[in-house]
Amino acid sequence: VFQKWVNREISNFDYLIQLNTMAGRTYNDLAQYPVFPWILRDYTSEELDLNNAAVFRDLSKPIGVVNEKNAKTVKEKYENFEDPLGMIDKFHYGTHYSNAAGVMHYLIRVEPFTTLHIQLQSGRFDCADRQFHSIPAAWQALMDNPNDVKELIPEFFYFPEFLENQNGFNLGQLQMSKEVVNDVVLPKWAHSPEDFIYKHRKALESEYVSAHLHEWIDLIFGYKQRGPAAVEALNVFYYCTYEGAVDLDALTDEKERKALEGMINNFGQTPCQL
Questions:
Q1: 259 within some domain
Q2: Which domain holds residue 169?
Q3: CA 182 to the chain's CA centroid
Q4: Eight-state DSSP code of residue 252
């Protein structure tokens, strides 16, 4: 697969899907859903210029520190972390770039995810301000908040329907602006959900992304996933998210085991290292 990708016989999209599959990610498990990168950082221009490197996100950095000013906070958190019991290793992020709640967050307008979201929120929709209501706002939140580190899901590159509230769900209204949350607000350069998907997919297959995608792959699936390279890349997550970090079979206490399983399921999991 790698050779095919290098020779450009398969697309970036196909390559990412295959890497996700090899690393144990599947559409059948929300806790291990395929993970895709944010690839753009320009959600405000009238036109999207894919020949301009400045419109792309820096793929060599974890999404939590793409904004330089978050890097300091993240570093300090890591350096100052001490677990008095000595069980928990230092980490940069207490959240994860891919978890069940994040998948439901993006797909809230489409079943079965709507119902799953409502179940997660004890029988109702979460408050409107926390909903996925705008692509530019979602990017801005990542830039402002070092605790928000959600990457994307594959649907952002092929499935326009998830951006439309076709079922007419009442998702509430935003507190400040009183704006009703309905269809997802698109970047200025996208004239419809279909247009967004078309341009976003084009961006994924662009020359810039083809030349830099391996840097992001190193962080998510490769050698920068754990160990010294991960520390240096500001890419260390909570210990429970790593494969083999917890030996569930060794836990004799049924309650403790269930609690830990629940935590791993909800918290997010780092893909198997390839």
A1: yes
A2: 1-267
A3: 22
A4: -
